[in-house]
Each structure stands twice: as C-alpha cells, then as structure tokens.
Amino acid sequence: MADGQGSAREAAERNAQAVMAGNISQVMADITPEALTQMMQLAAANGGVSPATMPDMQSYEIEDEGATDDGGQRFRVTFVASEGRATLGATWKQVAGQWKITSVDLVSAEREEPT
After folding, report:
1. pLDDT digit string (tens) for 52-92?
2. CA 86/CA 67 separation, integer angstroms
3. DSSP state of 71
4. CA dihedral 101, 74, 54, 20 (to 10 degrees)
5. Which of 48, 56, 96, 112 has the fewest CB atoms within 10 Å, counting from its CB?
6. pTM of the full predicted structure?
7. Can you name the CATH fold of 2-109?
C-alpha cells in the first residue's frame, strides 16, 4: 500500500536511518505513543540493550515480514553497533495519512563483550 507519504518500507528505511543518525525528532514523528511506551519498557526489561542506548551505530538491516491482518506492514530491523546488536519487530500502519510504528517488540538483543 502506498500513498502520498510513500510506502511502509520507505517509512521503515527513513526511521532506521534516523535511529542511526540519532535524529530523535524523526524517530518520535514516526512512532505512536503506545509504541513509544512499548519501546521504553523493552529497554528497561533487557538490561538497557536497545537501539536507543547503543552508541556507535554501524549498520542496520530491514526484513519485510509481510502484511498484517489489519492492514499494517510488519518489519524486522536489526541494528548493529560496537556494543552489540538488537533486532526489533515493528508494525507500521497508516495513522492520519502517515505511516507510523504502532507496535514494537524486541526479537533479540546481544551485547558484545569487550576484547
């Protein structure tokens, strides 16, 4: 599904690039309050390992997991940093004509041991 705001994939790419660049205002523009609450709970429950707490971001990868039953689009995004990697599952839906993250969950988080 695409509209004047682009596709869900384009929104997911824009968001991942914003995370990499530390562009918090874009990240906040892309997420609903409910998904933001989920994101904050994930970081607290996993020893602080989340994309928001990982400095020195090096790369990201987005996997398309397909459409959801309620018209959304599901992506799995893996962020890699010097401290480790975190993979999030994110559901994107149209909210007031814009693609927004409406649900997020932590698929995995691995902290890299210092050498």
Report:
1. 666 678 999 999 999 999 999 999 999 998 888 889 999 99
2. 22
3. S
4. -80
5. 96
6. 0.83
7. Nuclear Transport Factor 2; Chain: A, (3.10.450)
